[in-house]
Amino acid sequence: MKFSNNQPPAIAIQLAPMIDILLLLLSFFIISWQFNKAETELNVSVPTAQEGADPQRQIGEIVINILGDGVIRVDGTTVDLPQLLEKLAKIAEKFENQPVRIRGDGGVQYQRIVEVIDTCQKAGIWNISFATQRPTPSK
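The structure corresponding to this sequence follows.
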């Protein structure tokens, strides 16, 4: 006499898709971390301030670097004021209250900083902050 076995077959856990997902997540975080580091120019020496907010960046913040000779760089590319206005206007259309951080070199003319602020306001961006650094402790 034959008895039928009504139990389903054993379920095996597939490891290959789980490993694929983990590698994709890991690569995403590594790549996005590298982009965040590239946005801050190393040759910009921001002014010092005794008091100031923590340098933690907001999510989606645009960093505008103004070098000592007045050159404006955004996302690693050099732009002039009309190009900056066009870029910021497109972003401001999509994202309300878009944060912008201005990293002006300590030796740049104040007029250049004001021109960049004016361009941000023309584009409809009002959430503007300025990067500073704490003074180095004297020994």
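The longest strand covers residues 99-104.
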